[in-house]
Amino acid sequence: MLDSYFPVLLFILVGLGVGIGPLVLGKILAPHKPNDQKNSPYECGFEAFEDARMKFDVRYYLVAILFILFDLEITFLFPWAVVLDSLGLQGFIVMMIFLGILVVGFIYEWKKGALDWE
Amino acid sequence: MTLSTLLTIAVPEIIILIAAMSVLLLGVFYKNTTSLFGITQLTLLIAAYFTAQLPIDVKLTAFNEMFIADSLSMFLKLLSYFALSLVLIYSRSFLQSRNLHNGEFYALTLFALLGINLIISSYHLLSIYMGLELLSLSLYTLVAFDRNRPEATEAAMKYFVLGAVASGFLLYGFSMLYGITGSLQIAEISSRLSDTSINPVVLSFALVFVVVGIAFKFGAAPFQLWVPDVYQGSATPITMFIGSVPKFASVAMLIRLLFQGLDHMVLDWQAMLLIMAIVSMLFGNITAIAQTKIKRLLAYSAISHVGFMFLGLATGTITGIASALMYIAVYVLMTLASFGLIIHLSNQGKELDQITDLSGLGKQKPWCAFLLLLIFLSLAGIPPTIGFYAKFSIIQATIQFGWIWPAVIAVMSALIGIFYYLRIIKVAYFDEPGKNLNQVSKSSNNELSVTLSINTISLLIIGLFPSSLMDIATLTSALIF
């Protein structure tokens, strides 16, 4: 009983250690000079506290959508890379075709200026 | 399965994919859009050549039986290329005059065509869904193509939300089918459904979800709510495209899923299709009477035509499928002609919107008025135009199957329909000329008017000699099983 749950216990302990350790070390070792800006919650590019019903710049959506597209590609690449040995040449070519189609999309969005912020 | 046979079967799709990507890149690197028109037309021609090379009487499968080439796929693919080619000819000057003529239009139509081809050749639930998404996403974008017009954006939003829900329904049905049969391949689903130990409740739910998904993509009542808004909101060439080519994919999806996959459930889906057919015919034709805008009127007319197609398919017989295939080919030809006429009359000048804008057409442009007469007589189903023969063959198949009262309802709804089609002809010939028509430019381009004339006259000629088209449709449907 205890044998089978020991790894779980160990996992919890290591997890807690990894979580708490750096915080404690940071508290002890780091220089500590607080100010208003540092203490306020961080939110990228916006005021931290304001009405949630506001207009977002449409460029955020563009970047987010493009990011998701190319991020999802990694979901396909990882399992493919793991079993590439047994897939052989056919598996390699098929993935290259898939990546080729994605690259066409990438060239298009680059040339169209979707990646320029200004 | 060697690579070469695999490539022969899928070569039209590969060509379309390469062309779509090339057009996308060419459009963004070079601004010369006239060459893109040529490239797209050439692609359609080459794809048609390779599609026609495939044997018609053998079922060839590829990619682990996910992809099939048979008589149905050849018939519908060739019609799709032809219809898209006409759409592009009609749209060019319209898009040029409104600054919408760019590479993305051609790339998106080619991607939509790729989706259509994929659906037509799918023999697996996943590849059907993939083709459907490719088609739908291209169509949502095309509807919003004229993005500075609020109506276009509104229509795209509605279409997107409703389309996503319908895709969800279809996917839910697919997942249940997979749960029951343990397979996604259509032939295997069919063979495993003959097993009697299957839970009938889950199977009925799966069937209902699948049928709802298909009916939505067709725009059959009661899943028709998106049709009028999308037809009215999109730019006219886009409306023409949405109203014509994707219909081939819908009919292929229906035949693959219901006739080839769920053929053991024939009694269940027959009833559903019959009810939707009757509701669509009556709803479409009665609601169209109240319309004042021509594109909206054609949208409701589309719903009633889908009802007729469903009636033919609901019989489940080979004559039924043949008549439905015939109907869809004819319907697409009529749709192209009717929207082509709208584009022709709204070139450069003010867009043709209200039915009353047509008044006085008979005196000012007699040839256009004559074409309008032919198109609307054909839509109404009056001999000797092809619209009559298409309706006739559907009703014939229904009566042969022994359904008398559905045939009676079909005839009655067609009679109701004649009223609003004839009213348009009456407005064009007998009403006093309005102000709007004068703004139509005289220097309308030639390739458009010639294509429109040929397209419209062909409605009459095929109507006089319908047997060859009907023979092809009968041959195609006999080879499906």
TrEMBL record, chain A:
One of its GO terms (cellular component) is plasma membrane. Its main location: membrane. It catalyses: a quinone + NADH + 5 H(+)(in) = a quinol + NAD(+) + 4 H(+)(out). It is found in: Cell membrane; Membrane. It is a multi-pass membrane protein. It is an enzyme of class 7 (translocase). It comes from beta proteobacterium KB13. Pfam families: Oxidored_q4. The gene is nuoA. The chain crosses the membrane at residues 6-30, 60-81, 87-108. NDH-1 shuttles electrons from NADH, via FMN and iron-sulfur (Fe-S) centers, to quinones in the respiratory chain. The immediate electron acceptor for the enzyme in this species is believed to be ubiquinone. Couples the redox reaction to proton translocation (for every two electrons transferred, four hydrogen ions are translocated across the cytoplasmic membrane), and thus conserves the redox energy in a proton gradient. Gene3D superfamilies: NADH:ubiquinone/plastoquinone oxidoreductase, chain 3 (1.20.58.1610). GO terms for molecular function: NADH dehydrogenase (quinone) (non-electrogenic) activity; NADH dehydrogenase (ubiquinone) activity; quinone binding. It comes from the Bacteria. Its EC number is 7.1.1.-. NDH-1 is composed of 14 different subunits. Subunits NuoA, H, J, K, L, M, N constitute the membrane sector of the complex. Keywords: Cell membrane, Membrane, NAD, Oxidoreductase, Quinone, Translocase, Transmembrane, Transmembrane helix, Transport, Ubiquinone. Belongs to the complex I subunit 3 family. This is NADH-quinone oxidoreductase subunit A.
From TrEMBL, chain B:
It catalyses: a quinone + NADH + 5 H(+)(in) = a quinol + NAD(+) + 4 H(+)(out). GO terms for cellular component: endomembrane system; plasma membrane. Its EC number is 7.1.1.-. The chain crosses the membrane at residues 6-29, 36-52, 72-91, 103-120, 126-145, 157-181, 201-226, 238-259, 271-290, 297-318, 324-346, 367-390, 402-422, 457-480. It is an enzyme of class 7 (translocase). One of its GO terms (biological process) is ATP synthesis coupled electron transport. It is a multi-pass membrane protein. One of its GO terms (molecular function) is quinone binding. It is found in: Cell membrane; Endomembrane system; Membrane. Residues 16-115 form the NADH:ubiquinone oxidoreductase chain 4 N-terminal domain. Residues 122-416 form the NADH:quinone oxidoreductase/Mrp antiporter transmembrane domain. Pfam families: Oxidored_q5_N, Proton_antipo_M. The keyword NAD applies. NDH-1 is composed of 14 different subunits. Subunits NuoA, H, J, K, L, M, N constitute the membrane sector of the complex. NDH-1 shuttles electrons from NADH, via FMN and iron-sulfur (Fe-S) centers, to quinones in the respiratory chain. The immediate electron acceptor for the enzyme in this species is believed to be ubiquinone. Couples the redox reaction to proton translocation (for every two electrons transferred, four hydrogen ions are translocated across the cytoplasmic membrane), and thus conserves the redox energy in a proton gradient. Belongs to the complex I subunit 2 family. This is NADH-quinone oxidoreductase subunit N. It comes from beta proteobacterium KB13.
